[in-house]
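Weekly modeling sync, notes
Attendees: S.R. (lead), two postdocs, one rotation student

Agenda item 3: backlog of single-chain predictions. S.R. asked that every request posted to the team notebook include the full sequence so nobody has to chase files. The rotation student volunteered to paste the first one in as an example of the format we agreed on. Action items at the bottom.

Example entry:
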Amino acid sequence: MAARVRGPAYLDIVTLAVCLMRLLGLISTFLEFKAGVLGIPRILFLLFLAMMCAPFYVALVRTPKFPFLFPPVVVIFLLFAIAAPHGVIYGTDPIFNFSFTDEIVRSGFWSPGTGNAFAHTYSFYPLGNVFMGYVILATGVPGTVAYLWIEPLLRLLALPATIFAIGRRLFSTRIAILGLFFYLGTASILFNTPVQQGMGIVFVGLSLLSLVMLTRSADKSAQRRAQVLFMLVAGGIVMTHHLSSYIFAGWLATLAVFMSRPRFRPAIGSVRLGVLFLYFIGLLALYITFFTYSIFLGHEQNLETVIYRLVAPENFPPAGTSAGLGRTFTTGEIAWVAGSVFALLVLALISLYRFRKSREHPFAVANGLVATTVTIVTLPLVTTGFNFVTLRIGEYTNLFVAPFAAATLIRWAGASSGRWGRLIPRFTGKRDWLPRAACVAIAAAILMGGNLAPASTRSYFESPLARTTDSPLNFGSDAIRASTWTDVHIGRERLWGDQLAIDGLAGFANMEVDFGSSRIFTSTALNATEWSRISVGDYIAVDRWMLTLRPNFFQEPALTANLTAAQVGKFARDPHLALVYQDATFSLYRVMWTPPR
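Predicted structure, as returned to the notebook:
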């Protein structure tokens, strides 16, 4: 009887079946989350993600079927919206990005420097927010719901295609597909979160793709089209996000340094590249001069302080403790995140070394060196107040680190078992599947470790001791109801409260906030020091979570313990305050008069 021959589509069908089964597992997991069932192991969630991406592993041996790649890409890029605990925008940064967008919708125009709290900084970079404001107006969907989906959908339409195009133009289809897989495991705390960086990455990716197009086409008209594309999307970076602008400017400057050596200089379009570099730097300088100089000056001063603290820490007082990743992760999970970053970097460096020696793909190698350099240079910042740069830089660097890492893993997967047998001869023998199985395990471990970092699902895995009052799980119907009432009846008065109250009443209702709320709440009675900060007409918001969870206040570290009944109840007893709103979660007091000073 003839041996059964498996068709070329057998592996694709098996991986698709695994993908769809794990997709059902993810759906059931999120249904449990939405029903309030916590305690699901994080490792189970990560395994579901890694197995859902099974069609990507086919790229280790041959080109996968493109339609089979859609489910994991769609789920991971829409994970923030899918994971929303209450169906509206959540998290401080996304909420105040929405606040800026809502201000544009209400007023009908952009006014830089408006907005309260974090929205004040966001208001200087309007491009993405203006577009989303138009979408909200055109669809008629409530802004708090529409904003949850608009940017994730835009990123889904733009980023996977851009990442694939970069890898395909520089290397091959298989490398491009596996590079996209590695990008899905980017270890960034804001990965796929609807903030200005999310839109900034889209423009950065398109800008780098236009440079790749410029250096890969000898046709003059194609080069001119690539130049026009760069000028448009690079301008989008400047008007969308400050950190993306600074990083891209540094990227271009470092790229210019590498390209000063002939071995890194592309054979086509090098003169045009120099002109485009100068164009972006000039455009950024003009925008800073006329619009964002005050923001830039603050960033510059903060960066100088961080650098001085790194160089001469003995000249500074000890820095306060920061929760960082340790707030929601165990030591082992932090090591896993770091290990995935380093593993991806090492895989990329291996291919970079190989291509550099063979003088293949000079422009790709130059960009790969820039990406790895940026990754390594920003690592020390993780111990400083600029740790957010280290924890977000992967979205930029992985545009080139990912395809180089993919090239290494594909080469390893094609190695014979005899080559691996020199490492572990007792277990390999003639097992040709071993290199591929090892590469699948490495790829899955990197994807799982990277997906520990994003904040989109983090609240579902927090322990009660780690959770703070502003957890997205607490931002439910009471917060939305209180913000709606406040928006109608109060307006832009000053608010004192924890971050949960500020997210709802300032982010959704546009109340003004000020620094220093913790001093008002941590005392058992309002004394002269506290009254010196409070004015008639101010509002003080209290929520029930303050008694059970650690409060987190505006631009202040979270407290180490929950507030006592005496600390929370003093507002109800104070004759200078009047209760104006109360529900099951929030109590809102108005300052009617103040004691003589």
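Discussion: group reviewed the output briefly. The radius of gyration is 26 Å.
Action items: rotation student to repeat for the remaining queue; S.R. to check formatting next week.
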